[in-house]
Amino acid sequence: MKITEFLKDHIIYLDGGMGTLLQEAGLGAGELPERWNLTHAAAVREIHRAYFDAGSHVVSCNTFGANSLKFSETELEAVIAAAVENARAAARDSVGTQQKFVALDIGPTGRMLKPLGDLDFEDAVAVFAKTVRLGVKYGVDLILIETMSDCYETKAALLAAKEESTLPVLVSCAYGADGKLMTGATPAAMVAMLEGMGADAIGVNCSLGPRALRPVVEEYLRLASVPVLLKPNAGLPRVIDGKTAYDVSPSDFADEVTELLAMGVRLAGGCCGTTPRYIEALVKRSCDIKPQPITNKNITAVSSYTHAVTFGNAPVLIGERINPTGKKRFKEALRQGDMDYILKEGIAEEEHGVHILDVNVGLPELDEPRMLTDAVCALQAVTALPLQIDTADPVAMERALRRYNGKAMINSVSGKRESMAAVFPLAKKYGGLVVALTLDEQGIPATAEGRVEIARSILAEARKYGIDKKDLVFDPLALTVSADPVAARETLRAVELIGRELGCHTSLGVSNVSFGLPAREVITASFFTLALGRGLSAAIMNPYAREMMQAYFAYRALSALDENCADYIAFAQSLPQPQAVTAPSTPSSTAVSAATELQQAVIKGRGERAAALTRTLLETEEPLTLVQREIIPALDRVGEGFEKKTVYLPQLLMSAEAAKAAFEEIKARLTCEGTAEKCAFVLATVKGDIHDIGKNIVKLLLQNYGFAVTDLGRDVAPEAIVEAVVRLHAPIAGLSALMTTTVPAMEETIRQLRAHAPWCKILVGGAVLTREYADAIGADHYARDAMEAVRYAEQIDRALRT
Amino acid sequence: MNTVCVKAYEAPPLDLREIWRYAGACSAVEAQEQLLRECILELGDQTVYRVCYREFPVACENGAVDLGFTKVSSASLAKHLSGCRSAVVFAATVGTAIDRLITRYSAVSPSRALLFDAIGTERVEALCDVFCGELATEKQHHGLSLRSRFSPGYGDLSLSLQSEIFSVLDCPRKIGLSLGQGLLMSPTKSVTAIIGIGSSL
Lengths: 802, 201
What we know:
The complex is a heterodimer of chains A (802) and B (201). Chain A has 30 helices and 25 strands.
């Protein structure tokens, strides 16, 4: 019998601790427990057998750390083969008469994934895949992924289990006392992602005792539509007279876990500190508990690596600004691969209060799969908001969904056969909340009823793929009211009908409605309010439009969604106060004082002020004059102060940022004309090194001084640096290394640059470097700090021009 | 002791002067102080303060040190541990939130990134001080005192000792701290060190 069958009307008992028992049997400090499958098979079998005797249905093989990062390929296979055989032998030897299953146990790799650590997501998937393939080869009945403490690594493990096997997969995470994973995920975030990807049961193990884990377990029971599992520790370890003891006894453990079984937990066992005595006590104590039915909680949600956003309570705002349509500056940034520009947009939207970021980076001439994946990875490194992946290219969609750290919103599918055949399999595999447009091969029906019909057929088709209606959000399409007077009315009716008749959530790209009309935001915001009144759950919108945010906060306050109107009041207070209009002075005197003020704003590091003054000045002044006469002198003053040690690094940076804000205004004006830039400069932190603060400081200053900086990021392979330098024929490359261990990588990069780009001057810097060291590894110049890097680059640039 | 102990602490008080020192500034003007206040506010209670540790008997012989779980050849560590019969090996971290904020602001505001970096360094040092203070009090009752912290990479002590420390302390599982291929720690605002325990002077 398959465990998923057995689970339907039984409570399943798992086993208890393994590591602590192996230590008692003599496992030494730092020794790999999995090796004992081969060297001490009898001891391992004895522990397994004791668990089966105690009543465990599932015993986990001693394979927690059996992965290719810790073992060679040959040894890994031997370890897993022996581990499975040890568990099988124990099942045969046990006196227990219950159903018995053997699980492949998979724990974390012990390495942190990028961007926090250095393990690539696909490499992690590959590591887990090797273990899964061996587990399948040697005949386990199921897979238990447990003690996971990071959302992204959990996704990698589950993806590998799903891709390499058809076995049932149970997934369990280790929550801290704060109710979150080590890297920040809440239970709601994990439930959304794991259910979406098709885990057969999900839950909680390790970290704490059953009582302390109770709030997390309750959250799982409230949210999960799949069975919930629990393997707590025997409380906390205490060292008494040099011996470790856990503070929850077998009988207390049995009482506490039984309470949670009564509340609906369906699979239970123990983790650190628990022994066969704990399982025996639990099995006895809970024998009368009836398994609680598993119900569909009908929760519509997306998640990031920290939290979930749920549809249906308060309106969900989806920021629309990461999209090149109609934005010259955005398109230019995309063409140049200027990721910082996209990140800045995302962070600004977050600061304006959106809950989800739509990500659309499609331009006909770009490699969209690569661009979208890069954008998703970069965005999820800097913001905790869930992302809505917005593309019409199924390849780009799959690549981005795969890399996404959580359960993404998918924008979009339509009622067209081809669209559903492309999108639904991806939603099924990677999980996701799919935005479904109510149009099909015949176009967009004119009436609300026609759109509801399409929604029905999309629901039916989704069901064939095993996608539940809670994972669809319908977009009944906001059309332009200036082109068709009944357009808005029909869309609003469709919102209401889809909610009432289909019980589904809706989302609208609201901005479209006002196209072609003056003061568009007035119409858009009113339409948004009306749609919310009809039950709209979410909107793709422009968070910078004050009218939209006003509509949102007012709606929440008026719909009892904002306690004491607190959010509305905070929002209202953040609005700029109406100011007395200052008398217009003569243009020239304004320009003069604004110019001095611009210098002051840059020197003082006031970015918003610098940007505003630049905007004013650009009305009368040439952009390049402004740069030469105001911004560069201000930067120079701060730079000189830094060199003389009267100005410190934080102030230097704040000034540089203010200058950058001014440059952004100038750049917006210059986009088509092209700026008279200085030479190309390729910048990177070398392979193996993930520190990049110093490098980023150098980049900012170089940009301010007009260099065309190509920043390759951190942990960059020598080949990639050479490729960029050769492609751009860059006269200067800047390399940074912070650790003594990564200096050899710097030396290797220099060697390769010398071989392939002999024209290139190499500038190095970083905490561990000295001038002598720089000479020894063959660099052209060592810069002690960012200003020195600028001075050297200017010197090279000047030499190139003469 | 045969087990790794884990401790979690409340946030130690902030030392602003230390933060400015780590940020490379001897003093701060008002605008920067405002920026630092904003950074501290944004960080809020996202930091964790976790330590895992274990005590080992130690023995030194001709510049080689037997740490109980591994033998290392290091004259500076041998000198540092002279007269000690045991040592506490610990790993401390303030978690991933600081790293995320540094990454976030590296893209849009390097001055904030610099301040978060400085705050992170101050936080993890403050955590080590709290942990060592507590350990010192405990050992004092037995007439013992602590030497100062000695980390892999100090003097001639190889950084590769990190691998052994991570394995014996089970850092990933105990406190969510992992070691990359280049022996860099993640979260980056973390410390591993050895503290000699000797008789009180």
